[in-house]
User: Which sequence fits this backbone?
């Protein structure tokens, strides 16, 4: 099996995440994509983030209509800070050696992972699929990677021009501006129902 893992804070999930996962599924012939909302992300430990249960449920409602997408509770249920290496080790154990793991992430986030202390351990556990946002210089990214010779298998994909970010969605909600068509209707409804992101401080 070829299993994609789409990691993210998903605070909130949006069409940028969904399109990226779908593009990776198709381009790399993956069998499924497992969305993995972070519990307490190391890289965002100083920022205020929405409770894990809300982020998890938004991810569930956003992916419910796609039979190839699943959502994992692995990281939201794990106490303490989230390290990608622990997640990849756990999935490796759970699925066994016959399953090849593809960790899908933004090109920005890939560079943060490559810089970690357990980087060498992570490198052997998965192929990294780095999604680039509009305006990203693919050739420069590949060259920089080759120059570093980290042992990471990183593949770059260009996703359709989507300048959507969770940061922008949170800012829009706190300013009472529309988020419709940037994330599925089900996510818009969930955010309204729970009154998320209404305070400017959350943006
Ligand atoms: P924030 O604005 O809070 O940083 P975000 O929109 O970047 O949120 P994350 O949950 O941090 O969302 O993203 C999860 C992963 O998806 C990251 O690797 C990120 O780079 C990637 N990603 C986010 N938005 C897009 C997009 N529009 N197109 C492609 N990849 C994206
Ligand atoms: Mg981000």
Assistant:
């Amino acid at each position: 099996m070829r299993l994609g893992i789409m990691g993210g804070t998903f605070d909130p999930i949006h069409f940028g995440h969904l399109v990226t996962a779908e593009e990776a599924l198709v381009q790399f012939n993956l069998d499924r994509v497992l969305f993995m909302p972070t519990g307490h992300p190391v890289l965002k430990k100083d920022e205020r983030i929405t409770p894990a249960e809300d982020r998890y449920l938004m991810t569930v409602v956003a992916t419910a209509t796609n039979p190839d997408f699943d959502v994992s509770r692995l990281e939201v249920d794990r106490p303490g800070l989230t390290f990608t290496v622990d997640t990849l080790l756990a999935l490796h154990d759970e699925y066994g050696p016959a399953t090849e793991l593809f960790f899908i992430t933004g090109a920005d986030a890939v560079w943060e992972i490559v810089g970690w202390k357990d980087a060498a351990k992570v490198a052997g556990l998965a192929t990294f699929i780095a999604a680039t946002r509009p305006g990203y210089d693919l050739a420069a990214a590949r060259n920089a990677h080759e120059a570093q010779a980290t042992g990471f298998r990183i593949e770059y994909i260009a996703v359709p021009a989507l300048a959507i970010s969770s940061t922008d969605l949170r800012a829009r909600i706190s300013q009472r501006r529309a988020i419709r068509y940037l994330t599925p209707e089900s996510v818009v409804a969930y955010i309204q129902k729970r009154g998320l992101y209404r305070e400017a401080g959350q943006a």
